[in-house]
Amino acid sequence: MPQESGPVREYKKTMSILVNKDSRILVQGITGKEGSFHTLRCMEYGTNVVAGVTPGRGGSIFAETSVPVFNTVEEAVRETKANVALIFVPAPFAADAIVESADAGIPLVVPIAEGIPPHDMVPVARYLDASTSTRMLGPNCPGLISPGDKCKVGIMPGAIHMAGKVGIVSRSGTLTYEAVGQLSGLGIGQSTCVGIGGDPVSGTTFVDVLRLFNEDTDTDAVVLIGEIGGTKEQEAAEFIKAEMKKPVASLIVGASAPPGKRMGHAGAIISGAAGRADEKVKALIAAGTSPIPTPGDIGATIQEILGK
Amino acid sequence: MKVHEYQAKALMAKFGIPVPKGGVAATPDEAKKVAKDLGGSVVVKAQVHAGGRGKAGGVKVVSNPDEAAEFTKSILGTQLVTFQTGPEGVPVTSVLVEETMNIVKELYLAMLIEPSTRSIVVIASEAGGMDIEEVAATTPEKILRAVVDPTVGLQPYQGRQLAYGMGLAPELVRPAADLMLKLYKLFVEKDCSQAEINPLVVTGDGRVLPVDAKLTIDDDAMFRHKDLAELRDAGQEDPLEAQAHDIGVIYVRLDGDVGCLVNGAGLAMATMDVVTNVGAKPANFLDVGGGADEERIRAAVGILLSDPNVKRVLVNIFGGILRCDMLARGLVAAYEDTKSTAPLVVRMLGTNAEEGRQVLSESGLNVTIAHTFNDAAEALRG
Q1: Final residue of a domain: which of B55, B76, B100?
Q2: Helix, strand, coil proportions of chain A in percent (round to 5)?
Q3: The domain that contains B300 carries what CATH number?
Q4: Which of B79, B100, B121 is the last residue of a domain?
Q5: Is B82 within 8 Å of chain A by CB?
Q6: For the whole prediction, is pTM greater than 0.95?
Q7: Closest residue to B270, CB basis, from A198, A267, A295
């Protein structure tokens, strides 16, 4: 039986803050509409995309690049030593794609798709934990980006980012861009921005990312952006209280949402008191984080923290 | 997707779960016939997608078929208002007529997918027939849970353990555990996001069966359950939410007057919060998503504007894949379609934001441009 609070998972050592210059990206679903569009944006940003996988398209070269396309992930890893899988496979087939990359030994998989049935993800999450050393970020997430290493593994607009020392971890995509926009506008750069995704059953948690930021010498402060629903923010608060050595600014959105209604993200639904915004805010303040008064004050709050 | 009690019970019966004898009726005559076939006293229950029906007058025990017909007549075609519905209520278009039972014990049983354990969890309680949140708050020791490992599924011992824990008599432990295993099978095979039986009852003649039943099928899994699509009762949904659902946009109607047009769920919630913070009230949650084209934006804004409560509109877009100019054109088209004059506060960032603002400023609409989140909020305050 899975443990109630989940064990601290040990992963193969990947890279200091998940991705960097040495990341070798493989794109599953590279020839699809979304996959090809975003692969090109990632490559423009400077990301080292080494392989694509689309069953039936093996042997071809992706678009006007020199990226080889393979039929299977196993073959792609053997030929290119890819170590991150960015997954654009559509929701109905995404679980299969995640397991394929995990079985090929890829240490970090990033499924972007929204709408993967939770009943597909429950056994996948269990399998990854119990039988592989693969870390999953997402699904239903924008991915992650390390601006200083020119490594963008996801769908975020690259141009708004700037290299620096603030880490961002968030359940939301566009709200993360909002945070980045505010920080860059004030001249405050980012170390790594991580979107953990809006689904109820997902891989990497706030705690996992906070732990990495805590140990990362390139990160001085962290922005944590949570939402209504679930208890992931409370778990983050416990970790921050017990172990976090760096200042954290926290924002919870959805205070104005009525209970019982799903606010877009499958995970953003208030069912029970713990899922409410005020409970999460309370826990994060008690843990010593600096509350961000409104979504317009993300940049200002961090500026104040760093100015101290 | 929520389904009606009678549909939930029919699905349960298909999976071998014992359910009360009864039938659904859409007219008083049908209700009378079902009651006659059942014989004796029956319970007539309004079929709506909301809890709290009993207290709202939607459930009645009657002693003969004529009374069943009479109560059915009185309730069909009305709007039932419960603590879970808005003040306008939900329409009653059918009733479930069931046998009455000699209930000796009321229990609680539910299944859900729990984010923190990333597993299916079975919740059981001896305190059935009550609000489970209340039970959890006041007597947490009465809430039992079993976390299911998907590798092996719910095990019979877990069912027995929960049954013993609820204080069931020895001869009822196996039937109760068996019911849980069947419900688990249904939960997994039909991609349920939630199943709740409250109360699950023990009858005087030694049966364990659901008296009320709620099932929610996961919307994201509907692609592999074409057969379940016909269970959708769009009449139970808010008409604007149902329209949005049909065009593939996520829209939740709220009770304020500021229409909100945003891309991304997190930013949409943040926008609603900011509206609330300045003392205004959002009329809706609307996430147009990243992949929307001009026609879908036009349709989505049309839905937003057709809410008569909307007096002004806040647009907050962080363009990425979504281009601001394309969004602006869809927005202007929807204003033309609906002849709306609701003033706009517009904040656009990212891809083609400048072009988007230009489209709006040339449209003749009443537009206030805001550059930051806080500017947008202040524009609503004023």
Answers
A1: B100
A2: 35, 20, 45
A3: 3.40.50.261
A4: B100
A5: no
A6: no
A7: A295
Q: How many whole angstroms separate alpha carbon A99 and alpha carbon A111? A: 11
Asked if B251 and B343 sit in the same domain, the reply is yes
Contacts of A268 in chain B (CB under 8 A): 265, 269
Please tell me whether residues B89 and B110 are part of one structural domain.
no
Q: Is B278 on the interface with A (CB under 8 A)?
A: no
List pLDDT tens digits, range A231-279. Answer: 999 999 999 999 999 999 999 999 999 888 888 787 777 777 788 999 9
Which two tokens mark B80? 């039932």
B197 with B164, same domain?
yes
With beta carbons less than 8 A apart as the criterion, state whether A181 and A169 touch: no
Which of B150, B265, B274 faces A123 most closely, judged by CB atoms? B150
How confident is the model over A194-208, as pLDDT tens digits?
A: 999 999 999 999 999
What would the 3-class secondary structure string for A221-269 be?
EEEEEEECCCCHHHHHHHHHHHHCCCCEEEEEECCCCCCCCCCCCCCCC
How many distinct structural domains can be found in chain B?
3
Sheet holding A135-136, edge to edge: A69-70, A49-53, A25-28, A84-87, A108-111, A135-136
Chain B residues whose beta carbon lies within 8 Å of the beta carbon of residue A232: 115-116
Same domain, yes or no: B208 and B177: yes
Peptide bond into A139 cis (omega under 30): yes
- From B131's Cα to the closest Cα of chain A, the distance in A is 11
Examine the domain organization and report whether B121 and B218 are in the same domain. Answer: yes
This model of the complex carries an ipTM of 0.91
* B108 noted as active-site residue: yes
Same domain, B245 and B285: yes
Question: In which domain, by residue range, is B63 found?
Answer: 21-100
**Chain B contact probe: residue of A99, A256, A292, A294 with most B CBs at under 10 A:** A256
Per residue in A180-196, pLDDT (tens digit) is 999 999 999 999 999 99
Contact A172 B254 (CB under 8 A): no
